[in-house]
Amino acid sequence: MGDVSAVTASLPTPQQPHAGQPRLFARLVRAGASSVLATATSQVALIGLLWWGSSPTAASAVAFVAGAIPNYFVARRWAWGRKGKPDFKRELLPYLAVIGLGAVASVGLTTVAGMITEPLEISGLARILVLDAAFLSSYAIVFVFKFALLDRLVYRRGSIPPPTPKP
Predict the structure, then answer these.
(1) How many structural domains compose the chain?
(2) Could you say which residues form the signal peptide (predicted)?
(3) For residues 141 and 39, is the Cβ–Cβ distance under 8 A?
(4) For the chain, give me the number of helices (H) and strands (E)?
């Protein structure tokens, strides 16, 4: 019996998927919380810019960027456990491509809502609420797809650079 435990003890243990990262459900919850922070930031920018008379397209584009910047840093560190400088080709460029799809959705839906409200002569607070609903709808629709792409493509275990040995 001593031989069996010695043999099994010497076998390598299989690596967990996403080693060094929180488990899938924790990543999803943390990415969701990070997205709520980004959405709140975007909402302040969007409503403020629309209130001051900005076009729906410009307001939603600026609002998206205002939320995307803190979301990148918070989600990268907290949801996916990444530290240090990101690799441009393996992490930052794919991340920008994924969130670019989200930007197209949010700016596109908000622009379409603006085009619809203009001939209907919806103005003031009512128009801001309609445009805001379109902007928020895109966030809700895109979140699941964005999470899946970020989790499986951008922050997958294989894309983590190997740790550098300390001298």
Answers:
(1) 1
(2) none
(3) no
(4) 5, 0
